[in-house]
Structures are given as structure tokens and as C-alpha cells.
# Entry
Amino acid sequence: MSSEKQTISVHTARTALNRDPQLRQWAEQWLKSRERIDFMATPGATEGDFEKHWPYVRPERMHDGAVAAVTAFHEQQKG
# Structure
């Protein structure tokens, strides 16, 4: 038996997000905070600018970040 972390597929992560509203809400907030960090590093960026930016990038971030978010959620639940 391997001690390496088991990775999940994008399909598994997206299915979990679609079936568990609590997980989806947590994942969205986790991904939003990561996006905020990157966005606010831009010179002149404001919180208002970010709030206008987030709805446009949210679908892509939720898809691209599904595996990382679901994995982070499960790690948080363990620890």
C-alpha cells in the first residue's frame, strides 16, 4: 500500500461539488480567496474591482480548481 496522497479526477471533484451544497459553498469561498490574493497583487486593484471581477472568472475557477478545492476540503475535515 502506498503512502502517497490519492488524487481524485476532475469528474469526481465536479460531481462532489454538484451533490454537496456545503462542499460547494466552502470550495467557492476557498477558490475566491485564492483568486482575491492574486487579483489584489495587481497595482491599483481594489476590493470593489475584485467584486466586479469575480463573477466573470468564477465558472472557470470553479472548474479548474475543483480538484484542489475538494482535496483541501477533505484535508481540512481530517485535521
The mean pLDDT is 92.
